[in-house]
Amino acid sequence: MNAKLTRRRFIKGVIASSVAAVSSGSALYVNAASGAVHLGIVERLITLTVNGRKRRVDVLPQEMLADTLRKRLGLTGTKISCNRGECGACTVLIDDLAYYACSTLTHSVSAKNIRTVEGLQAADGTLHPLQQAFIEELSPQCGFCTPGQLMSAVALLQSSPKPTRQEARQALSGNLCRCGAYEQYLNGVMRASGQKRQTGKTGL
Amino acid sequence: MADTDNYQHIGKNFVPPDVVGKVTGRAKYTADMSVDGMLYARMYVSPIPHGRVTHLDLSESLALDGVFGALTADDVSPANSADRTILTNEPMYVGEPIFAIAAVDERTAENAIALARITIEPLPFEVDPLSSLQAGGANAHSGGNIYVGGQEGGLKELKWSEQELQNFINQQAMPDEAINEWHYGSLEQGFADASVVIEEPFVTSGYAHMCMEPRSTLAYWQNGKCIVYGSTQSQSFVLPYLAGMLGIELKDLVYIGENCGGGFGSKIGPYPSMAIPVFLSKKIGRAVMLRVTREEEYYIGTARVGFQGRVKIGFKSDGSVSAVDLFIVQDIGSHSGGGDASSAGGAISILYQPQAMRFRGVPVLTNTTPRGAQRGPGQNQIAAVMGPIMDVAARQLNMDRVEIRRINAPDSDSRIGGKQGPVTSAYMKQALDLGARMFDWDKKRAEKTASTTHKVIGLGIGQGYHSAGAKGFDGLVRLTPDGKIHLHSGVGNLGTYSYASTTRSAAEVLKCSWENCVLEYGSSEASLPWSSYQAGSNTSFTHSRANYAAASNALEKIKQIAAMVLGGTSAEYDVARERVFNISTPSKSMSYAQVAQKAIDLGGEYSGASYPDDIHPVTQIAVQQIAGSGLIGVAKDKLPQEGTVPGLAVCYMQIELDTETGKYEILDHVAIAECGTVVHPQGLYNQMSGGAVWGIGLAGYERHAYDSQNGLPANVGFYQCKPPTYLDTPLEIKVGAVDIADPQSPYGIRGIGEPAMGCASAALMSALSDALDGQLFNQSPVTADMIINLVRGELDAENTSGVAFNPQMKAHSF
Questions:
Q1: For B19, which of A81, A140, A150 is closest by C-beta distance?
Q2: Domains of chain B, with CATH numbers?
Q3: What's the pLDDT tens digit per position in A182-195?
Q4: Whole-structure pTM value
Q5: Predicted confidence band of residue A41 (pLDDT cuts 50, 70, 90)
Q6: CB spacing of A141 vs B690 below 8 angstroms
């Protein structure tokens, strides 16, 4: 098991950023005592490093990374499904670790390297080995969870280039797929890591 | 085996064009879209399970900076039935939308909602069907507690006496009165012929669809046309229903549903909330996006129907089923959704071929989330019920559990349903046999011994069924002067890749390379033909036929043009490698590119300037859009077709159950498809293994939980609803296919999506029962706490014929 990728560490990160989100977000636009609504919040200009490029961006104090990526930077490959750290559709890499972007404060990652699904393909158009493997295994079904599955898989292979199927299953277990394409995603991870299927998969 | 060796495309894998976008993040779903000046809408939803809005003042909301407008129930068509409405003044469940506000951003819209002055008068409510049937129980609707479909239907009230209710709960007698009923054969004779009679109660939970992509919508108006981006399973099928909901003409609607992030029955057609941004946009004059949250998706995203029922089955001494008497009270939620119960009866009638059968059902409204079709609606709940019951019968008859299923297995002469209609073909015995071989049933059964530890092995078998095909829809293909073959697919992109795989039939007819084919899909502006709904496992059968019909029409035109240009008659020509040639003098030939140019020159039916009268208006508009751009092949599927098209599936499962924790690992999982010719092996593999995950969810994890005192849903997120994860499902799933062509499909293709799930849910229930010495739970899902309680003897399960019907086993108890 990859020491950097334990579920406990992952979950701790999510909880920490969620707590921070609640504490700053609740004070922002509704005064609980008076019910008054405050508009015209001063936004902060910060620099994010996303997919190797520095991007200047206005970010609200309580803004989550998934919203920043999608709305302000146009990186809509990162999906929002549950928006509360349960499904993994928004998974991105922060300094090579998989994080739920929906539960990560943007301000907390301004000094870090962020990698999204848009950053997997090489500049010359060559697909990342996992992207290529996911195509060859026809891993996605509806495709909505696929970017998150990919980013968790990238994090896994960066630290553990030849995982067992069981290790891959554990590493991706924070990513839900309602279509139930777990089998095909694991096949993709095994293919991308240069490993053959461990058994005769199918009579097809 | 189907003879696919001679096919160029059928039975071969390919790379569907949308998959690259899915792995690069370039695939756009509705919430990814953006339009200049776009506003955002938010909804105010009911906080109580049933009430009446007596006062609504939005003046302060509308005065807030950044707010552009509001939409209330009074702005949209009033409800006149139990159907779901866009917005309502009489909410029937917690989460039903009441009004919506559009503003510069979602935060401002939510702030405006907080400024609204609203009074909702509470009305009586009920979240459990049996409580509603009880004398004195509340009705979910003011007009009744039962919804009956059909012209004579509507809201009605049905109450049972205390004695009738207790008889039902305590397994004494089935009620006399039912709302839906069908039967065939003599039940009396059937039970008289039986050596073994098994009677069991059952409860199956409803639960949410939980699509990963919430049902967001973007809408705007441009040059008199309404442009809508949505998340639907279907593409062309959406158009007339959405146009009707919006009150506009078909020609004035553009619908884009290029990618759908999961539907599973909940997004077959336009969903009511789709109209909210459309009407707001019309009112305000700017584009409006409605992003639906996870919690809202739980409310408005619909759910599976729950069952509370009883089944009595007679078995002859040879194991054949002589009679089935089925009674189901079904929770149809707050509106008119769900014909699951009758479908459950239909599934039993084909899977076990009873000599006589009676189905009776009572559809009860509750103030819970609306119900609708969910992957195998009815068929898959009853599959989970029947799996372990067949095992009980096998044990009592001292038969092998595979053998009792083989004896009753449907074949091509089998009949289905109350009308005992025919099927197109069926090979369930072959599926059972293939699965037994791949699973090594005999060896695993022989090796299974009584455990001396808390880890016990269970072996399960399951069978699934769903009708899997329709007819009468349109196909459209086009050859253009650049040599491309455009395959226009009105099929929605719901993740099965059937929008693409069904067009392979057209490529097969035209004998063209896949590389030269251009798939047109995902937007009505791409000129797409009329399509069936993408649900009910029907697309593969239905649109393989429609594509075959359109390509055959194009092929005939190609040959006619060749005869005109090169001489002779069309019968003297054939096609290969994108050329049409004279059979006796192959050097006399034309390329498809040349043919396409000639078609444009000829006009008329060749170029689409005219078209058949019998194609759907949606297809007519599509042909008008592309007329003059090449050779048009267009046709309605009028190929012969009679009988139900069955999709059948079998699952074998081996589990290791820890009786101390109630947790289990699925050690071996074999899924077999019986769906005619395999058109797309990878697609079939996806459906069978994805269906397996869904079946495991039904049998082991997923359920609704409602607070009966306040009508509040207790689970409105993934974690609480518990769709299976990587760790709940097998490490590997083996998939096989019978692969025998169906005679009523040009290439022998039938559908499979839904039975893929039912067989897995049945196999898991069967395996759990087998691990626990044949004891039945009579309830799904079977959760870890139920297993521990049963092992401890705290459930009344002392005999192997089943537990007593526990009055606490209500649909939403928790």
A1: A140
A2: 33-123+212-300 (3.90.1170.50), 375-469+643-781 (3.30.365.10), 472-636 (3.30.365.10)
A3: 999 999 999 999 99
A4: 0.94
A5: low
A6: yes
